[in-house]
Amino acid sequence: MPSLPSRRYARNHVWAELDGDSVVVGLSARALDQLGEVTDFALRVQPGDELAPGQCFAVLESAKAEIELFTPLSGAVVRVHEGLDLAPATISEDCYGEGWMIALQPPDLSEFAALLDAEAYSELLKTAASCE
């Protein structure tokens, strides 16, 4: 199997990144640009929970909206980013680093491989921008 890019994207602007044998999940910079400053964050999962693709794992409130975040792939929750509820601005400040939200242990990488790579995600953003 050819090597996969370490970060991939779902159409709902949630990113997933390989981290050893787990996949770390967060919200893309594009989504955060649209939402404005993050003012509140609440996880809806804990380690040990089994998630299916499209299952809500958190609720995020920003200056412009309150949204539910849905997992881009299935797997067992192996880590959650404790403390984001106390420092939700971390998500906006470093969405691809310290702003990660959960880590999953997928049963295999097929769902990860099916997510958009950076180029396909960029094309999705161009298409969305032309419709606005």
Précis, in short:
The protein is α+β, with helices and mostly antiparallel strands and 132 residues long. Helix content is 23%, strand content 34%. The chain has one domain (7-131): RNA polymerase II/Efflux pump adaptor protein, barrel-sandwich hybrid domain (OB fold (Dihydrolipoamide Acetyltransferase, E2P)).
Structural account:
By secondary structure, the protein is an alpha+beta fold. It has one domain (7-131): Beta Barrel (OB fold (Dihydrolipoamide Acetyltransferase, E2P)). The chain has helices at residues 29-35, 89-93, 110-114, 118-131; strands at residues 7-9, 14-19, 22-27, 38-43, 50-51, 56-62, 66-70, 75-80, 102-105. The strands form 2 sheets. The protein has a 6-stranded antiparallel β-sheet. Strand 1 and strand 2 form a beta hairpin. 32% of the residues are buried. It comes from Nannocystis pusilla. Residues 22-105 form the Lipoyl-binding domain. This is Glycine cleavage system protein H. Keywords: Lipoyl.
Q: How many DSSP helices?
A: 4
Order of secondary-structure elements: EEEHEEEEEHEHH
* Strand adjacency order, main sheet: 1-2-3-9-8-5
Helix/strand class: alpha+beta
- What is the number of strand segments? 9
Reported by name, the CATH topology is OB fold (Dihydrolipoamide Acetyltransferase, E2P)
Structural domains: how many: 1
Shape label: globular
Query: Considering DSSP H and I runs of 4 or more, what fraction of the residues is helical?
Result: 10-25%
- N-to-C span: 38 Å
CATH class annotation: Mainly Beta
Using the 3D structure, state the CATH architecture.
Answer: Beta Barrel
CATH superfamily: RNA polymerase II/Efflux pump adaptor protein, barrel-sandwich hybrid domain
Estimated radius of gyration: 14 Å
Q: Hey, roughly how much beta strand do the residues contain?
A: 25-35%
The low-confidence parts are none
For the largest beta-sheet, the strand count, sense and barrel status come to: 6 strands, antiparallel
| Integer average pLDDT | 91
